[in-house]
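Consortium newsletter contribution from the modelling node. Members have asked for a concrete example of what our holo predictions look like. Here is one, prepared for the magnesium ion complex that several groups have been discussing at recent meetings.
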Amino acid sequence: MTKPLPDAAIQIQGLTKTYSGKTPKQALKGVDLAIPRGSIFGLLGPNGAGKSTLINIMAGLVTKTSGQVKIWDYDIDRQSRMARSAIGVVPQEITIDPFFTPRQSLELQAGLYGVPKGERNIMDILAVVGLADKANAYARSLSGGMKRRLMVAKAMVHRPPILVLDEPTAGVDVELRRQLWDQVRQLNARGVTILLTTHYLEEAERLCDEIAIINHGEIIAQDTTQGLLALFDAKVLEVRLDQTLDKVPELLAPWQPELRGNKLIFSYRPSQSPVNEILRAIRHAELEITDVSTKESDLEDTFVQLTQDAA
Ligand code: ADP
Ligand code: MG
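And here is the predicted structure:
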């Protein structure tokens, strides 16, 4: 009996989590999320937003307070074993036993997941993460980047269709970050759905097809990366003049530019006032332009705006 493939690799409804303690902390406040099968999905949010809590609930490491989580259509409460086998989680911290070789680590992990000896393909998995030639080296002799890749291999040892990476590039140098991005893209090209958390906007923008932004335990936006960028319809135009003004000319007042010496800085919405209208008005005001530059809004602006609105 084969099950039809689910549209959503992960489906979350009304998920809440309150950590008990002297001062109980509500880390998730009713999260709804659908992660399309086959996507590279980014869960983006500042530190403390609830990203790891969400991931750890999926991984079975944290118990939820309420709500429903389905992984590959398996409910984590009612079909926990199946749900667990459909997902591989790479936690935020590197946890590798220094005295095992990569091959031994993977054999051990495969054993934990009950993968039969004849079906383990350990060498294939090591090849996928570029560690085939390190199969028999002690883990302590691996570089930081190699250790991260070994963590990915461990998470993939039972061949789950979904791979979850919690802040895979936090505190990692630029070179290694690029390597990890390549790795993620290659796994995705092989059909693996990827969920990653990050607080790096550039990472989400470069790597992800779709992004959800989480802040204070709530999803405040979810869209395709393009859609999210378009949501924020704003640009900045900086105009340098051949003279210093002491007040904004009447003709330019509608745009409320900021005056900084010989510079006028316009924040505008391209959909409402095209840049040539602004430039025409400047010429009508009989001002001589010596230089012009514009700044695209990026995910950073969107993020700052959305997280401020929600604060
Ligand atoms: P993120 O991964 O986005 O940085 P976390 O999920 O780690 O966020 O944390 C969300 C909130 O829950 C934070 O306020 C954090 O302090 C709190 N928190 C996380 N883990 C625990 C825990 N084990 N006990 C109590 N509070 C926790
Ligand atoms: Mg975290």
